[in-house]
Amino acid sequence: MKEKTIQNEEVAPEEVAAETSGGVAGESTAHDNVSENDAAATDKMTDNSSETPTAEDIAAEVAAWKDKFVRLQAEFDNYRKRTLREKMELVETGGKDVLKAMLPVRDDVERAIAAMEKSEDIEALREGVRLIAQKFTETLRQRGVTEIEAKGQPFDPDRQEAVAKFAAGEEQKGRVIDVVQTGYMLGDKVLRFAKVVVGE
Question: Which backbone phi and psi does 95 adopt, to 5 degrees?
């Protein structure tokens, strides 16, 4: 086998031109396109250079942005003060609606007391007090306050507080035997823990 090397070969200029004419032609076309794009970009930069903002334009724009900043800062400060004032009012009058809802119940209690002084019908008085209690419970329920059902239920430390333990047998172990003080929920949160007696 004969090995050919580039150094030993002599290539005529015509052959080189013939072999590379396709590639060079393509490259020259691309080069021409790039040259045209560069020329267009240069022209565009020349056009833009003539539109360079003056010192007066820059000063006017800075003043406009400064004015916008000052106005925005003032608006934010007013918003902060208004929000703070609304929070204070909410804290002061947050229970206003609840207290207002309790007033009719108090009126009923006063009427019941007046009736006790004049009437000797014990059963009627009992019924009146029972109705007042129902009205009071319904008013609380309308405000989202519900009673925690505890008696006979398994002891729940998240809602109940064990104040005593009582030996009640294996069946009642860990269950609430008695409720010393009723607990209440406000929505999904404990308003007051139920005080209970737990079996052991």
Answer: -95, 10
